[in-house]
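Predict the 3D structure for this chain.
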Amino acid sequence: MHGHPAKSPKNTNETIFETNAIERIHKLQLLHLRRVRLEGCYTNFPTGLRWLCWLEFPLDSIPIDFPLECLIVLEMQYSSMREVYKGTKSLPSLKILDLSHSHGLSQTMDFSYCPNLEELILVDCGSLLDVHESIGNLDRLVHLNLKDSKNLRMLPKNMCMLKSLETLILCGCSNLDETMKKTESLKMLETDGIPRSELWPGRNSSILTYLPCSLVE
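Done. Predicted structure below.
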């Protein structure tokens, strides 16, 4: 549903649908929305949804009654959200979370509620100051991209516990001031625009000394 000419408020490009318009699609697995607002209760929303792509999501958080327990991929780029949820929500099947360009996002979710996450993409989230420390418990996390989240100041110290992490992208995180520790599974590291002194404070010897031997790029 891309800019469908349904019931749209005046002077906006936003389209409004009621949730009961989708309730009867019982086998729905992929829902792709852009610049659309859903109004109403989500209690009877299809529970088998596997992939939700909702570009320009208009709310400040995902409604707590949205049934996403079977969701594998959640993409909400360019959203208006400030937090993922108000309260707690279990997403046991979630593998990919992409909230890139959500400029008002000020905090990440508690990752203990999505223990099977494999890819976390938070590109250009300008209001994000830190990442929830529960990220250190994501045993299956392979890809972490925080590119251009310019106000990010610190990374959790327990990130070194990410045993599966292979790609870490921190390009443009110019305010990062937290010491990095070795992540032994890392294969690709991008830190363009960050002074070495910010990543490894007080260390004057070769940078190669502090990089994991698993690194390829």
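The chain has a mean pLDDT of 87.
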